[in-house]
Design goal:
By secondary structure, the chain is α/β, with parallel strands linked by helices. It has one domain: Maf protein (Alpha-Beta Complex). About 35% of the residues lie in helices and about 20% in strands. Strands 1, 2, 3, 4, 5, 6 and 7 form a 7-stranded mixed β-sheet that branches. A hairpin with a 2-residue loop joins strand 5 and strand 6. The chain is elongated and about 65 Å long. The relative contact order is 0.16. The model has no long low-confidence stretch (mean pLDDT about 95). The structure holds inosinic acid. Inosinic acid binds next to strand 3 and helix 3.
Length: about 210
Amino acid sequence: MKIVFATGNGGKLREASEILGEGFELVTLAQAGIGEDIPETGKTLKANSILKAEHVWNRCGLTCFADDTGLEVDALGGAPGVYTARYAGDGKDFSRNIDKLLHELSVREAEASMASALGVRMKKVSRRARFVSVVTLIIGGERHIFEGVLEGTIARSRSGSGGFGYDPVFIPDEYPGKTLAEITEEQKNAISHRGKALRAMAEFLKETEAR
Ligand code: IMP
């Protein structure tokens, strides 16, 4: 089945084609004749995921899907969340995004240890975090939403060279002591937010085709 994936992110594209496997032929935005940047002006991951998928549907009318992913860190009140791609500015520079994330967490930890030195009781700073992916599929003009979550913690520094984005600082619960950038792509896809959401989408499409 041919399906347009509304992303310009090579890492996402590679993972999605591995996750969906042979029954799906992924068409890129460029191949679908869509060259412009798709606006991501929504206030939630779901809103942005729908915006991206609807943009593609309105431009080419082909079965398509979009993925919007956010990283939610407990000690930062759920930030960067919907601003994950632009955490350190509009340049979407993932190295600067990671620098900012590690800096914000170390500031929170320094504040907590200063408070405890002054005898003020404060909750320990939690490095717990999760990736959330919201996938919107549009088929026959109808939209369907799928979600996947990966729980873990934020490392103190970068490790590993695999994956993309925040992978070098995200330690999934399934691989204690290893970041997503230190496990294989196959291992990441089997547990990841994107893997869960896209497998649910593939299951739905197979059931729809069988009817
Ligand atoms: P968006 O869904 O394209 O808006 O991506 C949001 C941000 O999250 C970007 O900075 C991506 O690099 C990052 N991101 C998305 N998926 C992953 C992932 O699986 N691992 C690490 N970073 C990710």
